[in-house]
UniProtKB/TrEMBL annotation, chain A:
It comes from Liquorilactobacillus oeni DSM 19972. Belongs to the binding-protein-dependent transport system permease family. This is ABC transmembrane type-1 domain-containing protein. Keywords: Membrane, Transmembrane, Transmembrane helix, Transport. Coiled coil: none annotated. InterPro entries: MetI-like, MetI-like_sf, PhnE/PtxC.
UniProtKB/TrEMBL annotation, chain B:
Residues 71-254 form the ABC transmembrane type-1 domain. The keyword Acetylation does not apply. InterPro entries: MetI-like, MetI-like_sf, PhnE/PtxC. The keyword Membrane applies. One of its GO terms (cellular component) is plasma membrane. The chain crosses the membrane at residues 15-37, 77-101, 113-135, 181-200, 206-224, 236-254. Keywords: Cell membrane, Membrane, Transmembrane, Transmembrane helix, Transport. SUPFAM superfamilies: MetI-like. It comes from Liquorilactobacillus oeni DSM 19972. This is ABC-type phosphate phosphonate transport system, permease component. It is found in: Cell membrane. Belongs to the binding-protein-dependent transport system permease family.
Length: 265, 262
């Protein structure tokens, strides 16, 4: 190949990538049946914006236990309890899925663990919530169970990566000093990975707060139920105040967890 | 003289540890009361849960033919949504980057807006957009566009902030304007990271888009809702397996591409 043609092929390589890309995008645009935007779209978005600027302040607290504040606290409680339980449940899954440095032959063990975690991660949280509603009835307890099982997928993955990247010196020191397996686990492995585990759990708590606020849409407690109801009955000032509540709650929790995580690591 | 190091009272009586334990236990008790946790009910009804799982363990494979089309629709929704979101996010990412925009006001306002957008959960956006544009994949595409806009803009401006200053200064010294600096000094440094983050967001959107239809925003979620409300758990199982396969394929595809890029 001459210098010039080499230059040419290098320079215009991206063009060849453009062709499959264009085909994929065309396929998506043609494939989607854009039903067209309904006629009232402009009107509805106007009323939503109007609602956001004229929130229903009376809903914030009325002492009935069905107001914004108590439902926000309930949402936080679902997220907290769910994340706490899942943080404990994830630890055995993490050890199952972690690829050990010594047992190079035991790949099937960690691979099977990793697959189980992928499966849990992909299993839609909403479906899980509906299944738990069938078991314990509608309410926040179903939400707690859904969060605690679903979070295993992500926490288990993060935990197992923390174990894989762990500093092995402490373990070796304990083994050479005559510690048995239990000693090594309790005195070397767990203390080494604990700060990271806690940091990941806090991070997952942030995500759980978001998902707890929508689990109510299927009846699993929290702020989601009145939100969906308000959207369906088109009471936009109610929607506005709930959106405000969610935004403030999520921002506050993100900030708090950020501060705590900085202290941990 | 060697002295035994003295411990303060706080250290001696493990005040911090005890305090954290007490706070955690109080929070746990409080949230259990708040959420009405009832483990006895849970264990007595566990049979029902496993009966449900048992029905899901026998998938109705015939249903697979019905599922293929909406699954493809889901991927298309995710692709378009991510692309629209990314296109809108790029200018905002540059506006929010510390090393490009010196004005604290512009940066602060941009970051405030981006933070607001990021707090909204995906299903909430879906419920809003279904109310605005009506039931169908259009609502899903808009939802994913807003959702990925919030995520991508943050990932992008964090990348932009890590670039090297040299090329920017060289261009500025040669008299380039802001747009020229961005095109010739910033973009070449970040393009690979941008594509990698785009693929990552696409992965997340494929996962997210599978449930959006539950509220009427198109894709496989519509069928998920239909099968669940008609108690056809064997069909639900097929849908979940199909979602799993698609997610695994998309994940590994995007992982391979990202590894090649970086």
């Amino acid at each position: 190949m001459t210098e010039k043609s080499k230059f040419f092929s290098k320079r215009y390589k991206w063009l060849f990538w453009m062709i499959p890309l264009a085909v994929i995008y065309l396929w998506s645009i043609i494939g989607l049946s854009f039903s067209g935007i309904q006629a009232s779209a402009g009107e509805v978005s106007q009323s939503i914006i109007y609602g956001l600027f004229h929130p229903d302040w009376a809903y914030v607290y009325d002492g009935s236990g069905e107001d914004l504040l108590s439902l926000i606290v309930q949402t936080l409680a679902i997220a907290f309890l769910g994340t706490f339980v899942s943080g404990i449940l994830s630890i055995p899954f993490a050890f199952w899925a972690a690829r050990g440095p010594i047992h190079k032959t035991l790949y099937w063990r960690s691979s099977s663990g990793k697959f189980v975690l992928v499966f849990i991660r992909t299993f839609p949280e909403l479906v899980l919530a509906i299944m738990f509603i069938k078991a314990v009835g509608p309410g926040s307890f179903a939400g707690v169970l859904a969060v605690s099982i679903h979070s295993i997928g992500m926490l288990g993955k993060l935990f197992s990566e923390a174990i894989e990247n762990m500093d092995l010196g402490v373990e070796e020191a304990l083994v050479s000093a005559g510690g048995n397996k239990f000693d090594v686990l309790c005195l070397a492995t767990l203390p080494t990975v604990m700060p990271e585990f806690m940091s990941f759990t806090l991070y997952r708590f942030e995500i759980a707060v978001r998902s707890a606020s929508i689990l109510g849409m299927v009846g699993a407690g929290g702020i989601g139920t009145p939100l969906l109801f308000a959207i369906q009955t088109r009471s936009w000032s109610r929607v506005g105040i709930i959106l405000f509540g969610i935004i403030i709650m999520v921002t506050a929790i993100d900030w708090l967890s950020g501060v705590l995580r900085k202290k941990l690591v | 003289m060697n002295e035994i190091p003295k411990r303060t009272i706080i250290q001696k009586y493990h005040v911090r540890g005890i305090l954290i334990t007490v706070i955690l236990s109080l929070l746990l008790i409080f949230s259990s009361i708040m959420t009405g946790v009832d483990w006895s009910e849970f264990f007595s009804n566990l049979g029902q849960f496993f009966a449900l799982l048992g029905r899901m363990a026998n998938p109705d494979w015939q249903y697979l033919n019905v599922v293929v089309q909406p699954i493809i629709e889901t991927i298309q929704m995710a692709l378009l949504g991510t692309t629209i979101g990314t296109a809108v996010a790029i200018p905002f990412a540059f506006l929010a980057a510390r090393n490009l925009v010196k004005s604290l006001l512009v940066r602060g306002v941009t970051r405030f807006v981006l933070n607001l957008v990021r707090t909204l959960p995906d299903l909430l956006l879906a419920a809003l957009f279904v109310a605005i544009v009506g039931i169908g994949p259009t609502a899903g595409v808009w939802t994913l566009a807003i959702f990925s806009f919030g995520m991508i803009s943050k990932l992008f401006y964090e990348t932009v902030e890590t670039i090297e200053k040299g090329p920017i200064e060289a261009l500025r010294a040669a008299g380039a304007n802001k747009i020229q600096i961005i095109v010739f000094a910033v973009i070449p440094q970040v393009i690979n990271n941008f594509i990698s983050y785009f693929l990552y967001t696409f992965e997340i959107n494929v996962r997210a888009s599978t449930v959006l239809g539950y509220l009427g925003a198109g894709g496989i979620g519509v069928f998920l809702q239909r099968s669940l409300s008609s108690f056809r758990y064997d069909q639900t199982a097929v849908i979940i397996i199909a979602i799993l396969i698609v997610v695994v394929i998309i994940d590994s595809l995007s992982n391979t591409l990202r590894e090649r890029l970086l």
